[in-house]
Amino acid sequence: MCGIVGAISERDVQGILLEGLRRLEYRGYDSAGMAVVDGGQAVQRAREVGKVAALVDAIEGNPLKGHLGIAHTRWATHGEPSRINAHPHMSGDRLAIVHNGIIENYQELRQELKTDGFAFTSQTDTEVVAHLIEKNYRELGDLYSAVKATIARLRGAYALAVVHADEPDHLVVCREGSPLVVGVGIGENFIASDQLALLPVTDRFMFLEEGDIADIRKDRIDIHDREGTPVERSTHRFEHGADSADKGEYRHFMLKEIHEQPRVIKATMEGRVTASRVLEQALGTDAENLLDHVRHVQIIACGTSYHAGLVARYWIEEVAGLPCSVEVASEFRYRKHVIQPDTLFLCISQSGETADTLAALRQAKQAGFRAALAICNVPGSSLVRESDLVIMTQAGPEIGVASTKAFTTQLTSLLIFTLALARHNGLSEEKESEIVQALHLVPGQVNDVLSLDGEIEELARGFMDKNHTLFLGRGSLYPVALEGALKLKEISYIHAEAYPAGELKHGPLALVDSEMPVVTVAPNNDLVEKLKSNLEEVRARGGELFVFADREAGVASEDSLHAMQLPPVHEITAPIVYTVPLQLLSYHVAVLKGTDVDQPRNLAKSVTVE
Ligand code: M6R
């Protein structure tokens, strides 16, 4: 959603804030702004519609000078993207705030503040918070107390950073339901929605907990919890290289992240598997005891992470022989459920901050699940902190809004988890060894697929002038087809749908004609012959087929069938490998269409509001 960044330093903070915004732009990019408290102790503010580059251009000849500042990149929730709705919001000309989240009771507060004489210039929920802090400031006389009194009246989710020109030696920040991290410097300190924003200035971070409020000064960080008790939050060093937020030689983050997959899949396996076995202790000291008791798995996630969960269901039921249910978090959280005894609640999330997934987890903890396991990519995220057991994917920061390496490392983690669970449910050593050996081959197989990039780019030309695409898969490759369709629609804006190939004749076949490309993934498994029949059904209706097939599956190019030959893969690991050509296909279609690949319209990387 939105991204916030703030700094207090001996040096001018404009450069730090702009670089932070650039790195946070994946979170929201319909407008950006910053406010800096200058030496004369006034607040200067700049806001622009569009990307951070527009803000940079706007302040180029007229820099905002000062040692204390806050900045924001927006993903609109209340009020259209416009300069007046862009953050920072101010009350009067001395107080400025930035906000990520949603204030649910903003209408009633707005009425109250209007009655008190405050004038509103925007349609946002955030401006209400600015005025309420100012009102409390007038009564209480200091910023910290004013912020504290204000948040006691807010309902909803927020991460806030507040500055006041009368108190130029600190900023006050707080969080409830939206992420906020404090970057620890030497004689300077920072805050941001995400560590990535601050990597050029520090690699030491404190993660604020829900309900925390912090007073950030150049040389001191004081944190109080929800009850007002002073608390220490431990400092962690950032684990990935500081340049992980750069595109390097690649044209887009998405392409870079697709190409990183062999390395990050390997990194996700490291320390968790030997040549032939899963090391279940690597899943946590309690893992062995827990897995012994699990009789059912309930998976919850959103978007791409949900697709990873759908693949895992095939694995858990086939390899571990246990029942597994998968549901999108936004549905799960709003219905009544029957919980089977000894059910493990498994959340999958790249960011660990997805509002629906977190809400589902919090409900589950009250509802009597055996334990909560998280598969997540962001250390220190809310999901990681609130789960009993965690498997960290080792994808490194994923900047492209369209998830790629996070998905394949989620699958890798889920397969390792499945094998550990299966061991407690009668999986033979021989079978475990066969699957682990197959997993070791995956990074090399993904590399082989990446070498087909040029050919896939050629295929992508066939989609440029199309408005719709159908994706087909069978078995555990059906979720891969779903993920392929999601990628295509997210970044190329072509309408895409996925079906289990066997469903084709039950309806979607009516759509097939020469204007409807049909993309299929066809590893050489038990279902390949059935899949070939489905392909014939398409060809018989004049449909154009794009088939990513095992080179031993006997699918060759002819007439309206474009076959791309992939290396042979084990049927269990096929979903990981077959995801990659679909990522490349979407990427090239988007580039050919000239869309904004890394920051597609209307989307945000981390969906921290409902
Ligand atoms: O951070 P999460 O994995 O919880 O995010 C879930 C979805 O919002 C995310 O996967 C979304 O669907 C991506 N844009 C997919 O590319």
From TrEMBL:
Keywords: Aminotransferase, Cytoplasm, Glutamine amidotransferase, Repeat, Transferase. The active site is at C2, K605. Residues 287-427, 459-600 form the SIS domain. Residues 2-219 form the Glutamine amidotransferase type-2 domain. It catalyses: D-fructose 6-phosphate + L-glutamine = D-glucosamine 6-phosphate + L-glutamate. It is an enzyme of class 2 (transferase). Pfam families: GATase_6, SIS. One of its GO terms (molecular function) is carbohydrate derivative binding. The keyword Transferase applies. One of its GO terms (biological process) is fructose 6-phosphate metabolic process. PANTHER family: GLUCOSAMINE--FRUCTOSE-6-PHOSPHATE AMINOTRANSFERASE, ISOMERIZING, GLUTAMINE--FRUCTOSE-6-PHOSPHATE TRANSAMINASE (ISOMERIZING). Catalyzes the first step in hexosamine metabolism, converting fructose-6P into glucosamine-6P using glutamine as a nitrogen source. HAMAP family: GlmS. Homodimer. This is Glutamine--fructose-6-phosphate aminotransferase [isomerizing].
